[in-house]
Write a structure and sequence with these properties.
Helix content: 40-55%
Number of strands: 8
Strand content: 15-25%
Shape: globular
Low-confidence stretches: none
Number of helices: 7
Number of domains: 1
Pfam family, one: DUF6912
Strand order of the largest sheet: 1-4-7-8
Largest sheet: 4 strands, antiparallel
Mean pLDDT: 89
Length: about 180
């Protein structure tokens, strides 16, 4: 089963060097029964894209928690054994799963990463994350949700696993400049 793990560049770097993604438990996203039921007309490719989009949105939350991380969404695509949906109430359209295992680096299929030009849009969304996820009566809530939703207009680039070390080195040099 293909799962999408939200991440940041520092977390990706740590996972690459540790040769595993963890610790468990962790939230990932995949084509769940709830997602499949919501997108009844969607083909497998559309469903995978919807799951990845949910992981990319969750990556913004990780960026909000780490103000020092470069303002780029990171999604790690992995192949793992089938896992059940998250415990508790699962909302229609939800692709969220809770993984209770550490994912070995050998299970990584690809990494998806924002372009440099997305940094302003993603950074604004990260700055407003708490407002977007919080009280709907807050007068800034609607603008914050709009900022978060604006990230969906930014394309994620695809990197093969063998490209990740060079990608991390280039991003590291960019961060020091």
């Amino acid at each position: 089963m293909r799962v999408y793990v939200p991440s940041t560049l520092p977390l990706l770097d740590a996972a690459c060097h540790a040769a595993e993604i963890g610790p468990a438990p962790m939230t990932a996203y995949a084509v769940t029964p709830a997602l499949r039921e919501w997108y009844t007309e969607g083909d497998d490719e559309e469903l995978e894209y919807a799951a990845m989009a949910q992981a990319a949105k969750a990556s913004v939350g990780l960026l909000a928690a780490d103000p020092g991380a470069p303002r780029k969404r990171v999604v790690i695509a992995c192949e793992v054994a089938a896992v059940p949906p998250a415990e508790g109430s699962v909302h229609l359209g939800d692709a969220r799963l809770e993984l209770h295992v550490v994912i070995p680096w050998t299970a990584v299929a690809a990494v998806h990463l924002d372009t440099d030009s997305a940094a302003d849009v993603v950074g604004k969304a990260a700055d407003l994350w708490d407002v977007a996820r919080g009280d709907t009566a807050n007068p800034d809530h609607e603008d914050a949700v709009f900022a978060l939703d604006s990230c969906e207009g930014e394309d994620l680039l695809w990197y093969a696993t063998q490209e990740i070390p060079d990608l991390l080195a280039a991003e590291g040099r960019r961060g020091k400049a």
